[in-house]
Amino acid sequence: MWETIEVTKREHYAIVTLNRPDALNALSTQMAKDIIAVMDELSKDIDVWAVVLSGAGERAFCVGADLKERKSMTKDEMIRQRELFCDAFEAVVRFPKPIVAMVNGFAMGGGFEFALCCDMIVAAEEAFLGLPEVGLGIIPGGGGTQNLPRIIGKNKAKELIYTGRKISGQTAFEWGIANKVAPRGQLMEATADLIREITKNAPLALQQAKRCVDLGVEVDLTAGMALEAEAYNRCLYSKDRDEGLKAFNEKRKPNYQGR
Length: 259
Fold this sequence. Notes:
Blueprint: E1 5-10, E2 13-18, H1 29-44, E3 50-55, E4 60-62, H2 67-70, H3 75-93, E5 99-103, E6 106-108, H4 110-117, E7 120-124, E8 128-130, H5 144-152, H6 154-163, E9 166-168, H7 169-174, E10 180-182, H8 187-199, H9 203-216, H10 221-236, H11 239-249
Parallel strand pairs: 2-3, 3-5, 4-6, 5-7, 6-8, 7-10
Antiparallel strand pairs: 1-2, 8-9
Helix pairs in contact: 1-3, 3-4, 5-6, 9-10
């Protein structure tokens, strides 16, 4: 269905795989188009409550922009591609459902930024993550200068951005960039465990909780509390809320429907 992406659906979640392993899953023009289309489709799929974003093969999650593709592009073409890339990053960061990056190998430049656009990161111990853009005369352009400081603070973020240094999956975990770390052979299991822990909960509540956290950190506390109250009321009048309360009283597992 998509040229550069594979989508595999499991119970209540989908695995979105960047599928250009021969190019280390580098971000091409077509991949950006595919990411935008996939995120839009999955946002509307009521059977998908969460998403795992991964990279094909064992070597790389995504090594950033496909510089070979850019070699033959004019400046105008690069500018248009850049606008498309921004839309692709925006499609991930604004995805309304929980999305977890499963970083199996190199996540460099835009690849690292795609992971940072997700809600959480599960990294292989063997993975390497970095933002090397300043060494190419540019800066991170997929939210790296914005998302990374929000996760680890300004000084640590500046250290990684100014030096272009790569860090391991283990270091990413120790710095608070990755939520979990595992040997590569156990990475899928570790990620699936986290996703199952998430998707046992009510999907509408997950979406509203994500909305509150993502928007709330950008506003003052009073506005954030108002946002939370509005989101709470949306959940309160849902069928899932009724089911959750009924299941609790009946001491059974709830059967959520996302309504």
